[in-house]
Amino acid sequence: IKYFLWLDSERSSLFFAKHIIICEGASEKIFIGYLLNTKWQDLKEKHIYFLDAMGKFSIHRYMNLFGKLGISHSVLMDSDNDKDIHKYINDFIEANKNEFTWHIKSFDADLETFLGINKPNRADLKPLNLMMNHRQGNITEVKIAELKEMINQLMTVTEIEKIVAAKAEPTEAK
Known about the structure:
alpha/beta, 45% helix, 13% strand
């Protein structure tokens, strides 16, 4: 029940999505959401919900919740180069995969490094920094295309995943 405390009118829409991508933070959610609404109409039509986990340390909680609820999901996070404690957290997230976890993808360092832009001095400025760099043309179309491909890979279902999903669907009464 405690997991439902974070439900609000925006997050409740995840129950109507066809797939959920758990993002590490607001930067990914805001930037990818912007791209979905402005450039990636084909992805928007797939009814993906991007959930801001509010940090890497909470990703496994959402994975477990969605697993219990039978909701398909993938994870998009920073690996932080497996530096210090991040190696243990990344391994822990990987170990928390469940039958409804389709994929886990990580940026080698972080989203900013992936996109070829500098990080701001303060973490709370990261989403604004991403949007400003995009608006100023500092993020190449090649990097935007690579990010889109990464999102597409998170949406790809293998044959095994299709079988698991089919078993989870309720059967119609005959």
